[in-house]
């Protein structure tokens, strides 16, 4: 019985230590490197149309890489094109009416100058001309809105990334509140790690780092420390031990280059930072592929 209790205590200590190591950090024996453990993180964008209409085409699917400005989907544009044609006709009618009203005012004012008609008639003609000009401006604005709605019938990718989820299909009714795709942006990409307070004085933004993963154990990815949270937080609750979960840590982001697209969201990663390195003289960035 005592032997079983002893084994359970040893197992609990091992689990606690492994949890602390995963979300914590440790230094090498000679104190010249800091090793951090975390997960790959990316930004996700919910893409939606800026209009309400039936979806006509969905041009990409889950897993497809997309480029910034690439066309992803389109709405049925027949009704929108009719609205543009109507707005163009309304604008032309308003333009003719404004010209006619301006000519009427000019002729009326000439008659007033010759004392053939009363000044009131010229004032009325001027008021009508001003109203016609305002109607022209309103018609022009209506045309621009109709054209904008037609442009918004096409959904483009805001940045480079990978389609993570295709939510709607052709024939579905799209609205600005209903996402069509979820886009996982491939740049920037970072490893989310947590620093102990005792490590804050040893590192600073801009320090170069190396990232390794279990999936590619022989490969190292160039990285740099891009962000350290200004506020402390408790260690994430996914750590099971009470001792580690109650520790205050600081979230940091290690931005990493991923030219081959091998790093994925949530992938465990190990970050190594050489301590004592000189301050970076410029902003780090990944080279163009």
From TrEMBL:
GO terms for cellular component: efflux pump complex
SUPFAM superfamilies documented for this protein: HlyD-like secretion proteins (SSF111369)
Gene Ontology molecular-function annotations: efflux transmembrane transporter activity
Signal peptide region: none
Pfam families assigned to the protein according to its UniProt record, in alphabetical order: Beta-barrel_RND_2, HH_MFP_RND
CusB-like beta-barrel domain ranges (all copies): 188-274
Multidrug resistance protein MdtA-like alpha-helical hairpin domain location: 85-148
Protein name: Macrolide export protein MacA
Organism of this sequence: mine drainage metagenome
Lineage: unclassified sequences, metagenomes, ecological metagenomes
